[in-house]
Amino acid sequence: MPDNTMMNKKGMVTKIHTRIKTEPFKNNYDLVGEELGRGKFAVVKKCVEKATGKEHAAKFLRKRRKGEDCRGDILNEIAVLELAKSNPYVVALHDVYETTSELILVLECAEGGEIFNQCVADNDEAFTEKDVIRLARQILAGVAFLHRNNVVHLDLKPQNILLTSAQPLGDIRIVDFGLSRRMDSLTEVREILGTPEYVAPEILNYEPITTATDMWSIGVLTYVMLTGESPFLGEDKQETYLNISQGNVDYSQEVFEGVSSLAIDFIQSLLHTNPRKRATAEECLSHPWLSGHSPHVHTAVPPAPPMPARVPLESLDETRELESLD
Ligand code: ADP
Ligand code: MG
Questions:
Q1: Is 295 a pocket residue for ligand 1 (Cβ < 6 Å)?
Q2: Is any ligand 1 atom within 6 A of the Cβ of residue 57?
Q3: Binding site membership of 172 for ligand 1 (Cβ less than 6 Å)
Q4: Among 73, 155, 176, 214, which one carries the catalytic annotation?
Q5: Can you give the residue ranges of the Protein kinase domain (predicted)?
Q6: pLDDT tens digits for 24-56?
Q7: Beta strands in the chain (DSSP E)
Q8: Axis-axis angle for helices 211-227, 129-148 (nearest 10)
Q9: Is 155 a residue of the active site?
Q10: How far apart are CA 85 and CA 183, in angstroms?
Q11: Which of 20, 204, 206, 216 is the most buried (most CB within 10 A)?
């Protein structure tokens, strides 16, 4: 029986309740279809549970990364998923398997894929403001739950927000708790984490990380969902970091054509370089942009007919991780 506890790195949850199965994964599941996605150390594949015929997503995580034992990090990811089990907007964890080289997380399958795809889509496939309002409420409900439980996600970006279905547009599921940390009052997390474009200024400045760090990322996420453009993305990493630390954001009519002024006000309440000035998840949920009963009546700028061609964000994928500041 593998040991389910570990030494405590800063802010990591140390204990999990799920029984880790050591029998072969393939005894109970068949891998089907194509790969669902991949990150730096994980590959995610669709699978079917033999006993029930139900589809799931199996996330295969290597325990050794760059010569280091990362089992503890994966247990932390599992612990956070357990903690958020009751929240509908956090992906559900079904089963865990372990082999000599990998841990396999069997997750609820989010059939609609990453919201990233619709952020970069043009015209008819792109989100409308009404869609974004509904999805933002769900993201915030999930994140408010995490924050109430003193968990910060630290990697909120369009590749880690999935949809239960794409067409018709379903509900969101927050995934990838690989960087998540527990914020108990004594723990000061000062680490370089996250993805350049979504990373908050305090991370670049080696200042303490708080729940406000996630709120910055939600500001960036909302900007991207509404405009198809990444607010801080520069020609290179240095320029991106500079844009972030200076809080350099384009709120022009040109970028926000057809988007309400309440939406812009909402984003501005999050993209404050000073984390103490940023709205909390609960405050966001009562912001007039999200709390109104008929959100479409708030449109200030008349909606433009077809949206202008969106700026491609392919570079997002090349910058999945923040490696160094030089
Ligand atoms: P990493 O830590 O390597 O970034 P993620 O958990 O983000 O791993 O998974 C990588 C990708 O796999 C995601 O961006 C998404 O496209 C896909 N994916 C992850 N979990 C699921 C899921 N439960 N259902 C469907 N696709 C998923
Ligand atoms: Mg990811």
A1: no
A2: yes
A3: no
A4: 155
A5: 30-290
A6: 999 999 999 889 999 888 999 999 999 999 999
A7: 20-21, 29-38, 42-49, 55-62, 64-65, 68-69, 93-98, 102-108, 113-114, 151-152, 161-163, 172-174, 181-182
A8: 170
A9: yes
A10: 19
A11: 216
Residue ranges with CB less than 5 Å from ion ligand 2: 39, 160, 176
Ligand 1 near 175 CB (within 6 A): yes
The answer to whether the beta carbons of residues 31 and 47 sit under 8 Å apart is yes
Give yes or no for a contact between 257 and 308, defined as CB atoms under 8 angstroms apart.
yes
105 Cβ below 6 A of ligand 1: no
Q: How far is the CA of 162 from the centre of ligand 1 (A)?
A: 8
Paired strand residues for 31: 47
For tokens 């389910």, the residue is 4
ipTM of the complex: 0.99
Each residue's pLDDT, cut to its tens digit, for the chain (326 residues) gives 444 444 356 778 768 999 999 999 999 999 998 899 998 889 999 999 999 999 999 999 999 988 999 999 999 999 999 999 999 999 999 999 999 999 999 999 999 999 988 887 776 778 999 999 999 999 999 999 999 999 999 999 999 999 999 999 999 999 999 999 988 643 566 665 667 899 999 888 888 889 999 999 999 999 999 999 999 999 998 999 999 999 999 999 999 999 999 999 999 999 999 999 999 999 999 999 999 744 444 444 444 444 444 444 443 343 334 433 33
If DSSP codes are grouped into helix, strand and coil, which group holds residue 130?
helix
Tokens standing for residue 60: 């295969």
Amino acid letter, 183: M
Pocket test for ligand 1, best of 34, 36, 70, 91 (most atoms within 8 A of CB): 36
Residue 17, both tokens: 């309740």
103's tokens? 């841990």
Tokens of 50: 């033999």
Q: What is the pTM of this model?
A: 0.88
CA of 127 to the centre of ligand 1 (A): 21
Reduce the DSSP state of residue 276 to 3 states and report it: helix
